[in-house]
């Protein structure tokens, strides 16, 4: 079966930048979905490692765009053939049968949604952080990019795609999509790398993320937050 066909209904879009360490395993895990007709698009933002070369034989297409997660995801969405779009981080694994879960969620009348998350790593606090993230998302209707956001193409177009900002693009698109429908909060879990929490410390990471998010809600420009985030990291 070809990687893409005229009747493809789901397109997965992976923005990458220097993700050679994890990308091959992520794409290999997506092989069953490709065999079932799901389109898998990798959008490289100018990697200096082997990301693009590693991805080429393991996905439907590799595209190249200016760096920036929002820009890369919008670029991939513009080229995608599916009626449904799912945005996946390079260090995140989807649950078995993800395409069926997404289809059922959207058939219920919601126009967008996300999965629950399980953070994989060494810290004993990661299961607690995972549960807190899922609960917060369910209560607020706001999702983060590592929860594998999905939406109809119509909803994506209606909100103008991801805002062209260097940070909090997932928070902002969630806010806009909420005006069209509540999110479908799937109990099935994606597994995402907890490397950030392991390397920087769980409490420090949680505090910094909440501080950045609070400042964003209070109107601080995402460009200023991105400069601070990059400096701290």
Averaging pLDDT over every residue, what do you get?
92
Give the proportion of residues in helices. 40-55%
- For the record, the CATH architecture stands as Alpha-Beta Complex
Query: Given the helix and strand composition, which structural class is it?
Result: alpha/beta
How is the biggest beta sheet arranged? 8 strands, mixed
The Cα radius of gyration reads 17 Å
The CATH topology is Spore Coat Polysaccharide Biosynthesis Protein SpsA, Chain A
Amino- and carboxy-terminal Cα gap:
43 Å
Entry keywords:
single chain, 233 residues, alpha/beta, Spore Coat Polysaccharide Biosynthesis Protein SpsA, Chain A, eight-stranded mixed sheet, 11 helices, 8 strands, globular, disordered N terminus, cell membrane, glycosyltransferase activity
Task: Walk me through this protein's architecture.
This protein has helices spanning 20-29, 31-35, 51-55, 69-79, 98-107, 126-140, 153-158, 169-178, 195-200, 202-217, 222-232, and strands at residues 10-16, 39-44, 61-64, 84-87, 92-93, 112-120, 150-152, 184-193. The chain has 233 residues and is α/β, with parallel strands linked by helices. The protein has one domain (10-193): Spore Coat Polysaccharide Biosynthesis Protein SpsA, Chain A, CATH 3.90.550.10. Strands 3-2-1-4-7-6-8-5 form an 8-stranded mixed β-sheet. The chain is globular, with a radius of gyration of 17 Å.
Please sum up the structure shown.
This protein is of the alpha/beta class and 233 residues long.
């Amino acid at each position: 079966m070809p990687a893409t066909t005229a009747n493809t209904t789901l397109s997965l879009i992976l923005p990458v930048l220097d993700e050679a360490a994890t990308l091959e395993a992520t794409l290999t895990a997506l092989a069953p979905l490709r065999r079932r007709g799901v389109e898998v698009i990798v959008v490289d933002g100018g990697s200096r490692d082997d990301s693009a070369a590693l991805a080429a034989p393991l996905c439907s297409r590799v595209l190249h765009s200016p760096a920036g997660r929002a820009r890369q995801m919008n670029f991939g969405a513009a080229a995608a053939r599916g009626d449904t779009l799912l945005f996946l981080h390079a260090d995140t694994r989807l649950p078995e049968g993800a395409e069926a879960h997404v289809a059922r969620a959207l058939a219920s009348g919601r126009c967008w949604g996300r999965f629950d998350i399980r953070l994989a790593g060494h810290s004993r606090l990661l299961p607690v952080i995972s549960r807190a993230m899922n609960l917060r998302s369910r209560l607020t209707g706001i999702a983060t990019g590592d929860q594998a956001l999905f939406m109809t193409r119509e909803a994506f177009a209606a909100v103008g795609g991801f805002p062209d900002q260097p940070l909090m693009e997932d928070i902002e698109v969630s806010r806009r999509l909420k005006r069209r429908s509540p999110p479908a909060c799937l109990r099935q879990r994606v597994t995402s790398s907890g490397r950030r929490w392991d390397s920087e410390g769980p409490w420090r990471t949680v505090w910094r993320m909440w501080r950045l998010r609070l400042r964003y809600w209070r109107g601080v420009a995402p460009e200023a937050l991105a400069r601070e985030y990059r400096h701290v990291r």
